[in-house]
Description:
Chain A is an alpha+beta fold and about 400 residues long. Chain A has helices spanning about 40-50, 90-100, 105-120, 135-150, 165-185, 195-200, 220-225, 230-235, 265-275, and strands spanning about 5-15, 15-25, 30-35, 55-60, 65, 75-80, 155-160, 185-190, 205-210, 210-215, 240-245, 255, 260, 280-285, 290, 300-310, 315-320, 325-330, 345-350, 355.
Amino acid sequence: xxxxxLRGVWKVFGRVAAVRDVNLRFPDGKFSSILGPSGSGxxxxxxxxxGIYRPTRGEVLFDGRDVxxxxxxxxxxxxxxxNYALYPHMTVFDNIAFPLRLRKTPRGEVERRVREVxxxxxxxxxxxxxxxxxxxxxxxxxxxxxxxxxxxxxxxLDEPLSNLDALVRLRIRGELKRLQQELGITAIYVxxxxxxxxxxxxxxxxxxxxxxQQVGTPEDVxxxxxxxxxxSFIGMPPANLVPAEVRRAPGPCVLLPGGGEYCxxxxxxxxxAALGLERVVVAFRPEDAILAEHPLEDYVSMEGEVxxxxxxxxxxxxxxxxxxxxxxxxxxxxxxxxxxxxxxxxNLEPSKIRLFDPETELNIEYLEAPPTPQVEAPPPRRRGxxxxxxxx
Amino acid sequence: MPGSRSWAxxxxxSIMGFLVVAFYLLxxxxxxxxxxxxxxxxxxxxxxxxxxxDNYRRLFYLIRHDPDMGKVLETTVVFVSGTxxxxxxxxxxxxxxAFLLDERVSLxxxxxxxxxxxxxxxxxxxxxxYFFHGNGMFVHFLQALGxxxxxxxxxxxxRFLPWGAWFIIIFVNGLVGVxxxxxxxxxxxxxxxxxxxxxxxxxxxxxxxxxxxxxxxLTRWHIIFVTVWQLLSLxxxxxxxxxLVEWRVVDKWYGMTWSLYVFETAFGSTVSDQxxxxxxxxxxxxxxxxxxxxxxRIMGFERxxxxxxGDI
Amino acid sequence: xxxxxxxASRLLGRRGGRLEEAPLTGxxxxxxxxxxxxxxxxxxxxxxxxxxxxxxxxxxxxSPFQKTQFTLENWRLFLEGKLAPTAARIYSPAYIRSxxxxxxxxxxxxxxxxxxxxxxxxxxxxxxxxxxRAATLRFLILLHAFPGVALIIGVYAVYVxxxxxxxxxxxLPKEYLLLYSFAYVIVxxxxxxxxxxxxxxxxxxxxxxxxxxxxxxxxxxxxxxxxxxxxxxxxxxxxxAVAIFAFMAGWEELIYVVVFLPRxxxxxxxxxxxxxxxxxxxxxxxxxxxxxxxxxxxxTILFFVFTQKLLLEAAHGGLKA
Lengths: 392, 312, 321
Ligand SMILES: Nc1ncnc2c1ncn2[C@@H]1O[C@H](COP(=O)(O)OP(=O)(O)OP(=O)(O)O)[C@@H](O)[C@H]1O
Ligand SMILES: [Mg+2]
């Protein structure tokens, strides 16, 4: 198995930069995901690792060795395509055997290894069929078997579950993860489905418009989104984003629309103070808010008007509009079903609130505060502001 | 990066490349070259000598003073424009009819009209040899109408020249060429969204309006394409004309277009003057390349040019 | 108005692209159209009928309506090689066989050369990156449109030149002359088909998903192997279409055969041509020629019966409308 690393990788198609300056490390033997919306450059990234594309700039390293110029047939990667790309004119057996035969594997061993991997994936009785005679889930397994049979040093999967129905997807998801752990293989899994990424991965890299937004464990990405994009992309429904003003004195406090006031403590407070932001974007997850008819003690509360209630069975999603026209979603118990037009309080536990710089869109926790100035010095300059504008 | 690295393109293109060089580029050069040499009777040694522009001078002298050459030029103009008209207008009408007809009937007719294109030249020539025979079906038909008496070779008889010969060559080549327009127009009609016809009908359009105001304007690029392409083909084809002339179905000179003249001058049983033929061919080449380039523009070449993906 | 109405019903009946479901309304208009088309098609129908009928006729009939007696005599004469009873030359059954075989050799040879040249070239033009790709594609169209008569002079000059080097110069014994002629006519004739065939096959390659090819390359295959084991099997319909068209082109060829092959080695085309050229009809026996022509038509007819769809689609040539 190998560790895969991308260093300053760019891929430019004509005028489109599909991948921009990506620096990423996929640890050996771990299950890593690349998560991003459609068109964000996920497949391009994967094809760069497979060798189908060559980086316009930067390099791809396998265990520290630069393989940017190595053609795909010499990289020993297994690749499962989004549409499986099985060879329609070959039987399942021949499809799986194809990589082995190309390596001049002895006939007996081909037979043995094909059967072995087919058994492992539960397609042992389909070997005589043609791809067109298989269901989507079966095709997916054949594609996986074809990728695994050559014992690749990296397994690359491009949205392998996206063509399957929900139930099959859940089942294969589990099997895939188990298989990866059993084989101890380095797996890189591309998906636009956050639940897949969160459930399966040891590491998630969120990508948007060709740029890596955040790399971290599922918990990191979920709990501590690095920027507004990650916060709004992850979660079902995604995090609510509400712009708010900052009151500087006495301590920095965020004035939420709908009446609430959030005064962070500790490190965050001093960061906020040091940054000298006048406005922030407040983010909170729909499942972290508690809807009540009154403000709750020790919670930050906003008043809003109920717009619509969507009952989903196990829970309800309540959409409220805040003063200033912003709407937010809150997940509630199914019994909570306030009539449209009624006024309710959205209560937030302070620790669940995230603040973002509206300009850089970065989570304030991740921002580096400028060096603490002398007491009573003029407010510190914000990043990006020019020196001349500093005095007001 | 492109083109610098790999042996693969050269390998894959090698056989085609060889054929193109050996059977297009080299012959083309040789033909142009031969037009400046005194080659006759296939004495290829003469290709080493030069006669400057003599062959062109001879050619233009013939054009000015040889009545047979005048007939060739006249025939070329009439044949090309007449057959072109038949092919484009006829093809369009056939396509309209096929489009309106019930699918099974339409398929039958389309195949029937494709038959001439697929029939070997020799057999097709034979069919019309019978048909336009001095005693053939066509003459019978004219006799039945009281237009003609006794056996007559329409394409040879002085009374009917030159139009008798012209009629036959346009008729025969028209039958071969008309299916091209038919197929292209037919599929163009099929690719017009049905809503457009429906909207026109709802607006009260009649069949004639639909043809003239919808089908013609929406397929005008196809019409232009077929016209230019057929123009090029008609200027350069000669196989059917060759059999009609050689089998004496039509008069030798009123059945001969410029390209057949080139062929007969180079390969004929009586003349074997490759130098003159080459000079005549060069003129054809110039026209051919011009029309070919025009076709390229019209057919929207760039659309067909799918980009290569991957960097392998 | 009826025309418009029936047009409307045709269009309505076509929902979902199921052409067979067109309703039978507007029959009157359809009938008129069919009659008009039949009238226009009459010369075609009559002359093909006449040809086949003549080959089974005891007398020389000039129209399909003429009274005649059914006979297999012409076919017997043809198959026995009694092609032109009045001609000085005595033909034999072997001669007929060799005539058909010659035609087949040319047709099959052209097919092989066309496929061998255009399939790899089409693959490269569809899938590989190289400097003159667009220019090559454009150039192929020009070649296809090129006046063949301008080429054949040069092609024949090369033929004569090589002939002199090989046979007059004594490099090869004379027995190989026929082989040389056949090989030359096959390759020369095939070349005329290569540009368009390459274009058609390129279109088929274009339609194979890139992922399938990448899968093969990632699985460890070289380009050559990918082409051979993965891509070629996937464009079999295209190969079939191109092969059939190449075969038909070789099968029907007259000019090249007359020019390059000696009179002693005729194909069906040049045989018919020699019977009729110079207006020598009276010297030959026309019904027997009709039998030969009917035999000659058989592949065309088979082709029609088995590949209607292919034919109607592929006859587009360059333009995919
Ligand atoms: N060969 C190419 N030429 C030009 N642009 C391309 C090419 N391949 C990809 N792109 C562009 O690069 C961007 C990223 O494409 P990519 O296929 O990597 O997205 P993706 O994240 O895999 O999307 P999806 O989830 O839809 O598969 C897109 O904007 C796409 O249009
Ligand atoms: Mg993708």
